[in-house]
Amino acid sequence: MRVFVTGASGHIGSAVVPELIHAGHEVVGLARSDEAAATVKAMGAEVHRGNLTDLDRLREAARDADAVVHLGFQHEGIAAGRFAEVAAQDVEVVDAICGELAGTGKAFLGIGLGRVEDLAKHPNPRAKVALAIRGYTERGVRTVLVAVPMVTHSERDRTGFIPQYIRIARQTGVAGYVDEGANTWPAGHTLDVARVYALAVDKAPAGSQVTGATEAGVPVRTIAEAVARHLGIEAVSMPAQQAAEHFRAFPFISGDVTMPNEATRELLGWEPAHPTLLADLGAGFYFSR
User: C-alpha distances in angstroms, 29 versus 13, 71, 121?
Assistant: First the structure.
């Protein structure tokens, strides 16, 4: 198949593209800069110049594709306090691409988790994106929601949850967590997540939900204590109000999510093969940058 990938040069995209090529697909990667284009080309993929605000260019690429893997997102908008705005822009991207795929039975893989009835009332702005994707299932698009774990970790990870958490710990001198720190973050190695995408392009039926989490939920206190050991600082409990101020540029510290993976293993024949989160923290590369 000819697969169009947005976010192709990013953290997850740069792992997904080689997996798709290895599986025998012809891959076209969206690139908004010369640097991104060079990265996409070096992986063996065709370059499609454009960005997520150029909807006509996205429609053009979608028309020529047999499947679309949508990984691009304006993540910088979250830290800038524009989460709802960039999520709304992402709905426009979904509409532009899926509008071209409607009635064709071609695949669209987007990021999301949840049933339609839950997504409709979920407070997370990205739930509206997943809901929009679900809406195209009845319009002849083979939609697949991929639940990307909150912590997608590896040496490729430069801006995700763990680098942000470590940055705050270094700046403040403590590795904080809320109350008992019993809330959990699902975790998955980048290469295991990429494998899910490659398998889902070939195997996942319309309307399916798959997950890339190899660990359903890692307690945040466990993560805090691992970070504290490496930085030589204390892991400290904080009440929710204090934590909201302490982590003001990182509004996910209280997130409590689990992502079981048994159904995905059964559907796709997926077997995670890469290190756990604590193993990657123990390897030290997150702290040597």
Answer: 9, 11, 33
* pLDDT at residue 149, rounded to an integer: 97
Distance CA 121, CA 152 (A): 26
Could you tell me if 25 and 1 are in contact, meaning their C-beta atoms sit under 8 angstroms apart? Answer: yes
Residue 182 CB coordination number (10 Å): 13
Q: Are 141 and 100 in contact (CB under 8 A)?
A: no
Q: What is the rounded average pLDDT of the residues 176-181? A: 98
Q: Which stretch of 61-75, 110-124, 155-169, 180-194 has the lowest confidence by average pLDDT? A: 110-124
pTM: 0.94
> CA–CA separation, 210 vs 190, rounded Å?
15
Average of per-residue pLDDT values in the chain: 94
Closest to 287 (Cα-Cα) out of 163, 146, 151:
163
Q: How far apart are CA 51 and CA 31, in angstroms?
A: 7
**Residue 257, strand partner residues:** none
Tens digit of pLDDT for each residue in 221-235?
Answer: 999 999 999 999 999
